[in-house]
């Protein structure tokens, strides 16, 4: 579905990503985990065509991706960030906007928006203005908006990290159910191993812009790993 070969990204004198190989197969959710500043968001942005790597190649659905990424390819992906970027309109309109841009019929838009608001348990908020939502509600609406696009690849950058623990837990469970039902091909960034363990079958550990380990969450925890990876994982073993 998506492949990166020997991706590096430098800004000025700083190497942000170094020699990264990455594969994403249809229907899987792959995790990117690492401490703050390890390059998770940078890698996600490169994979989602928001930043152009300094070197290396990207392939999307078997085709090399050109430097200027064509709109039809961009429209096959969806993104959700840590802070929900909702427009100050009603919840319904926020979820509908991408579908309007894609010229879906009014009836189809209504059907899809209703369906995805329901999946994320926020149908009752449909007429509410986005600014009046709680953090957890806003993230649910952001996820509904991304899923409503029925993207070929979904990119989630720390979608729960600004939420309190119980809110995060509830959303993690609901998102897990949606993944199970839809098999949406996803890249999930998190600094929390719990998210990775619950939602992914495979994850890459990034340290200082490099992939230091890769495997299923249980394989990663079992080790043995390089010393610096062990040190990072030690935070999650208690
Ligand atoms: N556009 C940019 N210009 C310069 N440095 C950047 C840019 N984007 C990210 N960085 C740097 O790259 C490093 C990795 O950042 P980031 O990918 O946001 O890490 P993470 O998401 O793992 O916390 C940080 O040191 C950050 O300051
Ligand atoms: Mg980040």
Outline the structure in words.
With 238 residues, this protein is of the alpha/beta class. The protein has one domain: P-loop containing nucleotide triphosphate hydrolases (Rossmann fold). 37% of the residues lie in helices and 25% in strands. The protein has helices at residues 40-47, 71-74, 91-101, 106-119, 135-148, 165-182, 193-199, 217-222, 227-233; strands spanning 2-11, 14-24, 29-33, 55-60, 63-64, 77-80, 153-157, 186-190, 202-207, 210-215. β7, α6 and β8 form a beta-alpha-beta unit. α3 packs parallel to α5 (135-148) and α4 packs across α5. 39% of the residues are buried. Bound molecules: adenosine-5'-diphosphate (ADP) and magnesium ion (MG).
Q: Going across the biggest sheet, name each strand in turn.
A: 6-7-8-3-9-10
- Which second-level CATH architecture applies? 3-Layer(aba) Sandwich
Give a short account of the largest sheet. Answer: 6 strands, mixed
Between the first and last Cα atoms, what is the distance in angstroms? 36 Å
Q: Output the structural class.
A: alpha/beta
Query: Approximately what portion of the residues adopt beta-strand conformation?
Result: 25-35%
In summary, what is this structure?
The protein has helices at residues 40-47, 71-74, 91-101, 106-119, 135-148, 165-182, 193-199, 217-222, 227-233, and strands at residues 2-11, 14-24, 29-33, 55-60, 63-64, 77-80, 153-157, 186-190, 202-207, 210-215.
List keywords for this structure.
238 residues; alpha/beta; Rossmann fold; six-stranded mixed sheet; four-stranded antiparallel sheet; 9 helices; 37% helix; globular; binds adenosine-5'-diphosphate; binds magnesium ion
């Amino acid at each position: 579905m998506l492949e990166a070969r020997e991706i590096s990204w430098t800004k000025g004198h700083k190497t942000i990503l170094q020699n990264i190989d990455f594969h994403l197969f249809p229907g899987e959710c792959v995790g990117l985990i690492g401490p703050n500043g390890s390059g998770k968001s940078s890698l996600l942005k490169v994979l989602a065509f928001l930043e152009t790597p300094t070197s290396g190649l990207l392939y999307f659905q078997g085709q090399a991706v050109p430097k200027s990424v064509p709109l039809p390819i961009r429209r096959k992906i969806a993104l959700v960030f840590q802070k929900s970027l909702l427009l100050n309109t009603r919840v319904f309109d926020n979820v509908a906007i991408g579908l309007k841009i894609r010229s879906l019929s009014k009836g189809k838009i209504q059907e899809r928006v209703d369906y995805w608001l329901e999946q994320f348990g926020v149908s009752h908020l449909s007429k509410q203005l986005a600014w009046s939502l709680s953090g957890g509600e806003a993230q649910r609406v952001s996820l509904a908006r991304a899923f409503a696009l029925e993207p070929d690849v979904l990119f989630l950058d720390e979608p729960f990290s600004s939420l309190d623990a119980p809110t995060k837990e509830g959303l993690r469970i609901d998102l897990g159910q949606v993944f199970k039902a839809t098999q949406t091909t996803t890249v999930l960034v998190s600094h929390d191993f719990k998210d990775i363990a619950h939602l992914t079958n495979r994850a890459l550990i990034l340290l200082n812009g490099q992939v230091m380990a890769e495997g299923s969450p249980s394989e990663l925890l079992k080790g043995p790993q390089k010393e610096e990876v062990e040190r990072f994982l030690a935070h999650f073993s208690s």
